[in-house]
Write a structure and sequence with these properties.
elongated
């Protein structure tokens, strides 16, 4: 008798949910839920369908956790879910260029040995050179640069990649 009461309460709650979905103009979901309730009632009321009481939960799990995500992924593969369509090309270009500190000048970078420390040396496209004081490589650090004479010889030997990695 207790199972009949629980079943009746579940049925009443389900029908109330169908009414709430219709009131929220979610007619498709309300119809799907109503069909699911009807199938469940038929399976649990007809003795000939007794085996389906054990098959149906597994089949529903496969549908919910396998079929629905596949169908959803297939559906969104034909939509434009990216954010590139939110701004015009000109506006997006302006926003991205405003974020960067870009110039047409490049810098050549060298790391030079200074005893057991390392010195940074930069040369821009115009030939101007900038060097740092010797620093110990390791954690991130802020290095101040000073202008160097382009004609002067750089102190220390340039480090190879093998020396930097080791």
């Amino acid at each position: 008798m207790a199972m009949a009461v629980v079943g009746g309460l579940v049925l009443a709650a389900s029908v109330a949910l169908v009414v709430a979905l219709h009131a929220a103009s979610q007619h498709v979901w309300a119809t799907v839920l109503l069909v699911a309730i009807a199938v469940a009632v038929v399976i649990y009321r007809v003795p000939r369908l007794y085996a389906w009481r054990y098959v149906l939960p597994g089949a529903l799990a496969v549908v919910v956790f396998v079929v629905v995500p596949i169908v959803y992924s297939f559906g969104i593969s034909f939509t434009n879910y990216g954010s590139t369509h939110l701004l015009s090309f000109e506006r997006a270009t302006a926003v991205l260029l405003a974020r960067s500190n870009a110039s047409d000048l490049g810098l050549d970078v060298e790391l030079r040995a200074a005893g057991d420390r390392t010195r940074f040396a930069f040369t821009n496209d115009d030939g101007a050179r900038f060097v740092s004081d010797p620093v110990q490589l390791g954690p991130p650090l802020r290095v101040s640069l000073r202008a160097a004479d382009p004609a002067a010889e750089q102190p220390g030997e340039p480090l190879t990649l093998k020396q930097l990695v080791a």
